[in-house]
Amino acid sequence: xxxxxxxxxxxxxxxxxxxKWDRCLSDTGIKIASGIGLGIVFSxxxxxxxxxxxxxxxxxxxxMGYANCQHDFVHPQLFHGHLKKVERPKESQ
Length: 93
Known about the structure:
- By secondary structure, the protein is mainly α.
- It is built from two helices and no strands.
- The two termini are 22 Å apart.
């Protein structure tokens, strides 16, 4: 039996940077939309349809997204929930 070895192209730094930016922008967008949604709910239920809970929710979402992006770019060696398989070397006898 022949063993097939697949050779993967090395990960280029601009590809990794692009992934970080994509993850950053999508995460920030989701957090802003969630903050606006919660702001609308709180505005309708508790604050008699005032606009400030919506703006506050959007600001909190933007701040959380910014903090996560800053963490991604400052600490690139940390994993982000992706499982990495580590192959252990086979023991020779």
